[in-house]
Amino acid sequence: MIERIIGFLAGWIVAVISAGGYVGVALLMAIESACIPLPSEIIMPFAGYLVSTGRFTLIGAATAGAIGCNLGSTVAYYVAVYGGRPVIERWGRYVLIRTSDLERAERLFARYGSVMVFIGRLLPVVRTFIAFPAGLARMRMLPFQLYTFVGSWIWCYVLAHVGYTLGDRWNSDPELRSLFHTFDIVIVLLLLAGAGWFLWSHWPARKARREK
After folding, report:
1. Of the candidates 32, 39, 34, which has an alpha carbon nearest to the alpha carbon of residue 77?
2. Which of 5, 118, 177, 181 gives the lowest tally of CB atoms within 10 Å of its CB?
3. Given this model, what pLDDT does residue 154 score?
């Protein structure tokens, strides 16, 4: 079952970005930033690969990703403002949200304050949930949007650059190219590895066994 879900997730991400272009990148990153842990570590490297093919630019991919992060984070912010923590506690399990991930984001925000919105955008996992404690704290909207955009843009640019570098190397390195018949195989393997790690770490059955 998990294998089928991984395959579906990888194929869906590729299809959304391939069909939607920059809008697809923004949409996926908005989902990731709305406290729904769709891995940006899969989304942005594939966008970077499309930079190597000439379809995107690095600046464009990073900016589209950051805009999506702001949109999704704004949703999470207002869910926290109007629904509070019980919303996540009641519905989070249906989108593989772990309470421990949210608690970690809350502790960091409580310790470092508003600047944690910027720092959190540069940290795996924390970046997905940091908007929620900002909403609980009623952080002012202007700095919230600014910190979110700048931190997200850096994160998206770095991940896109990784994908671009792999794609560019594929086009110029005969030794790498000889390992695979098409670069699509490399992309699928990277997507499957990232999706596999994500589902393994968030799958409810595994979490229940660990807590026994």
Report:
1. 34
2. 181
3. 96
